[in-house]
Automatic annotation (TrEMBL):
Protein name: CsbD family protein
Similarity remark: Belongs to the UPF0337 (CsbD) family.
Residues in CsbD-like domain copies: 6-58
UniProt region (Disordered), positions on chain: 35-67
Organism: Methylobacterium adhaesivum
Length: 67
C-alpha cells in the first residue's frame, strides 16, 4: 500500500471513529464509544505508517541522489 493510501484510509477511519464516538456519547452507548475510539486509533496508526513510508522514500531518494 502506498503512503498516500495509508494516509487516506487513516483519515477515513479517524472520521468514522469520531462519528461513532459522538453517537455513542449521545445515546450513552459505551460499546459504540469504545468501537469509535478503537477505530480512531487505527486511523492514527495508518496515518503514521504513511508518514514513515514518506520518510523512508525521502531518505532512499536522497541516498540515490534523486533529491
Amino acid at each position: 500500500m502506498s503512503s498516500t493510501t495509508d494516509k487516506i484510509k487513516g483519515l477515513a477511519n479517524e472520521a468514522v471513529g469520531n462519528v461513532k464516538q459522538g453517537i455513542g456519547n449521545v445515546t450513552d452507548n459505551d460499546k459504540l464509544k469504545a468501537e469509535g475510539k478503537a477505530q480512531e486509533l487505527k486511523g492514527d496508526a495508518q496515518k503514521a505508517t504513511g508518514d514513515v513510508k514518506d520518510g523512508a522514500k525521502h531518505v532512499a531518494d536522497k541516498v540515490a541522489g534523486k533529491d
